[in-house]
Amino acid sequence: MRKRFSLLSVSLIIVLSLVAGAWLNQLISGDNIYDQLNKFKDVLSMAQKVYVEDVDTGKLTEAAIRGMLGELDPHSVYISSAEMQRVKEDFQGSFEGIGIEFAVLNDTLVVVTPIIGGPSEALGIEAGDKIVKIDDTSSVGITQEAVPKKLRGPKGTKVRVAIARAGIKDLLQFEITRDKIPLYTVDASFMVDDEVGYVSVTRFAATTQSEFVEAVSKLKREGMKRLVLDLRFNGGGYLDQAFKMVDELLPKGKKVVYTKGRRPEFNEEYISSGSARVADVGLVVLVNNASASASEIVSGAVQDWDRGLVVGETTFGKGLVQRQYDLTDGSGFRLTTARYYTPSGRLIQRPYGEDKVKYQREAFERNEEEGENITHSAEKDSARPKFKTAGGRVVYGGGGITPDYIVKGERLGEYAVQLRAKQVYLDFANKYLDTHGAAIRQKYGADSRKFAKDFEITDEILETINSMAKNKGVEFKKEAYDKDVRFVKLLAKASIARSIWGNVGSSRVTLLDDNQFKKAISLFPEAEKISKSLTSLK
C-alpha cells in the first residue's frame, strides 16, 4: 500500500508539475508569444523556400516590424540603421538636405514641421503639407527609410516636390536647393524693446537647455523683465530638455511633469530644483497646432502653475512617451512606454484610431473661436476631463493645451505662397543686396531693430518682385495680389533682413505683423497678475 501510494503520489506530483509548468510557461510567454514567433518564423521560412522570386528576408522582417509597431499607436516606430544615423544627426549634429521633420502615415509623406533656417522653411513649406511627388515621381507609398534617400543630398543640389495643402485646390510646386541644415534649437533671441525679450525654440534636442540658458542670461544682462517664449511649430523632442527648460522658469519644489506606464519602472516624476534663472520675469508662451510633445510639457506646466499665460492655438495633443531601443544591426525602434501628465494631472494626448493621416490632420483643422479664455469657457461643452490650475482656474485634459487667449495665426494667400514656392523673395533679396546691400549695411550696421522699424518696401520694389514672379511662371491675379500685398511686403523685407542678420533679422521683421505675437505683448499685465500667486504656493 505504501509503495502504491508513493507511486501514485509521485505520479500525481509529476502530472501536476507538468500542468503547472505548461500553465506557467504560457503565463510567462504572455499572449502565447512563442507561438506567435513560431508562426512568423514559419511564414518567413516558407517565403524564402518557395516564393516565385528570391526574397530579401531582412526586408520582409523590417516590414513586419513596421507593421507590428503601426498597430500600437501613431508614435511607436521602427528606425532602420540608415535612419538611426540621421536621427543622431538631427538631435546632435547637422546634415545636408531640404530641412524638414517628416512622417509617413498611411503611405502618405507628411511634413511634421519645416526646420527653421532650412531651405524648406524659407520657401514656405508648412507643417501638415503632404508631399505627393518627388522629382515628378509619385511618393505615395514611400517608406520611412526611402524618404531621406530622396530628399537629403549634398549642399547645392536641387530636388522638386509637389505638395498637397489643405484649402488649396491645386498642387504646389517647389524646387528646393539642398543646404546644410542648422541644428541649433534656439533659432532667435533678442530684446524686442527695453523690457521684453523674445526667445524662439524650434525643438528639444540635446543642447536645448544650454542654448536657452545662454539666451535668457544674455537677455537679462540687457535688461529683460518680460519674456515671450515662442514654441510655435516646435514638434517636441527630449522630455528631459523640456523639464530643464521649465526648471529655469519655476521656483523650487514644483512638479513639472510625471509619467505613468504599465510597468512601474517607467513611472517618473520631475520636480523643479530651484536653480531657475528666469523665475522672476513676466512670461507669455506662444503655441500653435504644430506645437507638440515636449512643447506641451512646457506650456502645460506654465499653465497649470499659473506661471504666465499661454497664447495662440490649441497644441497638437501628443502625450505619449517613447523609449528608443537599439538592435544589433544598428537599427532600432521607438516604443511608447508611458503617458505623460502635466502637474495638475492632465493627459494631453488626443484620441487616435487606425487612420493615422486623419489623426495627424485633425490637429490642423480645428475651428476655434478667438478671444479671451482665462477661465477656459471655450471648452465648457467638452467631454474632456476637468482639472484645476494652482490658482483654481479650470483646464481640460485629453486634447492638447488650449491657450488662455486663443489667437489664430494668419495664413498666406495663394499669391504670397507661390512667391515663396518659386523662391521669388530669396532671389529678390539677393539681387537687391547686390546693388543696395552696402548702403543698407552702412545705414543700419548691426541694428536689425531699426531696419525692421524703418525700412519700407516701395511700390517700385513691388513692381520688381511682381516682374520676377511673372518670369518664374507665377500668374498675376489682381484680386489675389491685393489680398496678399501686405504679406508680400513683409516677406520681401524679411528676406533682406535674413540675408544680413540671419534669423534674428527676419524674426524682428515678421513679428512686427504677427497677430499672435502682438497679442502676447499686450497681455503681460494679465500674465503677471496671474503669476503673483505662485510664490505663495507650497
The number of helical elements comes to 17
Tell me the fraction of residues in β-strands, as a range.
15-25%
Give the fraction of residues assigned to helices: 40-55%
Q: Describe the largest sheet.
A: 7 strands, mixed
Which tags fit this structure?
17 helices; single chain; disordered N terminus; 41% helix; alpha+beta; Pdz3 Domain; 3 domains; globular; six-stranded antiparallel β-sheet; seven-stranded mixed β-sheet; 2-enoyl-CoA Hydratase, Chain A, domain 1; 538 residues
Structure commentary:
Helix content is about 40%, strand content about 20%. With about 550 residues, the chain is an alpha+beta fold. It has 3 domains: about 95-180, Pdz3 Domain (Roll), CATH 2.30.42; about 185-320 and about 335-410, Alpha-Beta Complex (2-enoyl-CoA Hydratase, Chain A, domain 1), CATH 3.90.226.10; about 415-515, no CATH class. It has a 7-stranded mixed β-sheet, sandwiched between helices. A hairpin with a 2-residue loop joins strand 3 and strand 4 (about 110-115). Helix 7 (about 210-220) runs parallel beside helix 8 (about 240-245). Mean pLDDT is about 90; it is low at about 1-5.
